[in-house]
């Protein structure tokens, strides 16, 4: 079941903080696979908003690419599919073929 997103009211008037986590990865598929792994392992923490994950190149951090669609679903939480996905939005965990391949690459290169 999808948990509600934290709202400004939950934080009072304090702005939310962002964690910037540099990686040694160099492809969008690999960094997306890492984001999927982080979401799957830490998704139970209500203080993290994985739907808002964006990625950028190290020297162009102002140009960000969304990882997930995160569209609001009527009463069913938020879409957990990749940004710009084909087909309808859905609350299920769907990992596309490219992300699965990238995870295998990450495991193999350890």
Helix share bin: 25-40%
Structural class: alpha+beta
Query: What is the topology, as strand order, of the major beta sheet?
Result: 1-2
Distance between the termini: 33 Å
How many helical elements?
A: 3
Principal-axes shape call = globular
Per DSSP E runs of 2 or more residues, the count of β-strands stands at 4
Uncertain stretches? none
Architecture overview:
By secondary structure, this protein is an alpha+beta fold. It is built from 3 helices and 4 strands; from the N terminus they run H-H-E-E-E-E-H. Strand 3 and strand 4 form a beta hairpin. Helix 2 (28-42) crosses helix 3 (97-108). The longest helix is centred in the first third of the chain and has 15 residues, at 28-42. The protein is globular. The relative contact order is 0.18. The mean pLDDT is 79.
Explain briefly what this protein structure is.
By secondary structure, the protein is of the alpha+beta class. It has 3 helices and 4 strands.
Provide keyphrases for this structure.
single chain, 110 residues, alpha+beta, two-stranded antiparallel sheet, 3 helices, 4 strands
Secondary structure layout plus pairing:
Layout: H1 8-11, H2 28-42, E1 54-57, E2 60-66, E3 72-73, E4 77-78, H3 97-108
Antiparallel strand pairs: 1-2, 3-4
